[in-house]
Amino acid sequence: MASGRESWSSRLGFTLAAVGSAVGLGNMWRFSYMTAENGGAAFVMLYVLMTALVGLPVMLAELTLGRGAARSPVQALIHYGGRPWGALGIVFVLAGVAILSYYGVIAGWTVRYGIEALTQGFPADAGDKFGAIATGGAAVAWHLGFLAVTTLVVSGGVRGGIERAALWLMPALGVLVVGLALYAATLEGASAGYAFYFQTDFGALADMDVLKDAAGQAFFSLSLGMGAILTYASYLSRDQDLPAESVTIALSDFAVAFIAGLVVFPLIFALGLQDEVGGSTLGALFITLPKAFASMGTAGTVIGVAFFAALVVGALTSAVSLLEVVVSTLIDQTGMERRTAALVCGGAIALLGVPSALSLDVLGLVDQVGGQLLLILGGLALAIFVGFFMPDPTGEASEGSRFGALLFAWRALLRFVVVPILAVVSVYTLIDTWNALAALVAG
Ligand code: TRP
């Protein structure tokens, strides 16, 4: 199995693919509405803290497991931990299926907004427009189309599909986002947006709900807790510096999220639309930002199309990594040919996403369970495994690394910082999920 395994063609190829996995709708859409919902800079600070203290160690754990075993998640966990740990791998795959099933729906909205803006401009009645396109037959169709493209990239293989796409898409995304932030800085009234973004509500720092959201956002944005980074690392050679990679990936991911905030908040405040994001929900950015673009005339169309193009690029490279977890598992378990495996998995997930394309309640619930609860629980289990059970993880992680001497601190961090924090966050996330379920049942 291991000898015929695919591999990245270059170091940069892996780095860009992993950054492509991390940077997605989570950075530009989820980060902005989470920040708005949780009161600005305090949330950002906790998010940075969670990224550094919890995200980074877990990222290195995934990289170490994946490269060390050179297998997809289920087999990697069995390799190091024996049969029972394979169950965790199965949870990873299920989380991947759940996340991609609704991620495709949101990505579908994004593609549609971008294309229709190009042909028709942004509509003034953005709220009605979102209501009309968010669910229903057309939402199903755009979701299926997006997953078809995702499947196509994954069936091209690690080098010919995933790496090739990342090599030109990620630099393009970087240019777009930086350009947009520079433009937003020129808007009259932008400073009110910065003021909101940087104003710290210190009370929020001690709020467990904000901490829970910050941890959840860090996991989602870094693609952690379900084996995506693990799977990408399984195609890596032993001379790559894993601790250095984890820092590069996390910094790039934070940079894009932070810069996206420098686009979103000035735009919203310059156009006086801030009241609409106060009680922010899933759809807020899809309503407020198009409104902003519509009121800016031709410039708004250009800027808006660039914004949605960046979102689509991020969404595609992220969706590819989610699908790759499922596909590589099927390949490793059955020996199936990659193209067949991609078609089977992509097709099944596309169908599973249909209910999310028909109901925002279903979409929200699948996000709560797959995109939040399972990631936190998966991350906790992974930290326990690598922190306490995996034989000699520091030895494996230090292979090819300049930072080997520092890695004893990594395992201590996993044991005594990551595990306790994630245990507490798990409880709050469980309560949250329970409440969401109860609210849905109560109608
Ligand atoms: N990180 C991506 C984003 O921010 C989404 C994503 C890709 C993801 N792969 C993942 C989230 C694995 C959780 C787990 O949009």
Detail the topology: elements first, then pairings.
Blueprint: H1 11-22, H2 25-37, H3 41-69, H4 73-81, H5 83-120, H6 126-134, H7 137-155, H8 158-185, H9 190-198, H10 202-205, H11 208-221, H12 228-233, H13 242-270, H14 275-278, H15 284-294, H16 297-334, H17 338-352, H18 354-358, H19 360-389, H20 393-398, H21 407-442
The protein binds tryptophan (TRP).
Tryptophan binds next to α1, α2, α11 and α16.
**What is the helix tally?**
21
Q: Name the poorly predicted regions.
A: none
Q: SSE order in H/E notation?
A: HHHHHHHHHHHHHHHHHHHHH
Main pleated-sheet profile: none
Mean pLDDT: 93
Roughly what fraction of the amino acids lie in strands? under 5%
Q: What general outline do the C-alpha atoms trace?
A: globular
- Chemical compounds bound to the protein: tryptophan
What helical percentage do the residues reach? Answer: over 70%
CATH class: Mainly Alpha
Under CATH, the homologous superfamily reads: Hydantoin permease
Distance between the termini: 50 Å
CATH topology: Hydantoin permease
Number of strands: 0
Secondary structure category: mainly alpha
Radius of gyration computed on alpha carbons: 21 Å
Structural domain count = 1
Instruction: Tell me the CATH architecture.
Output: Orthogonal Bundle
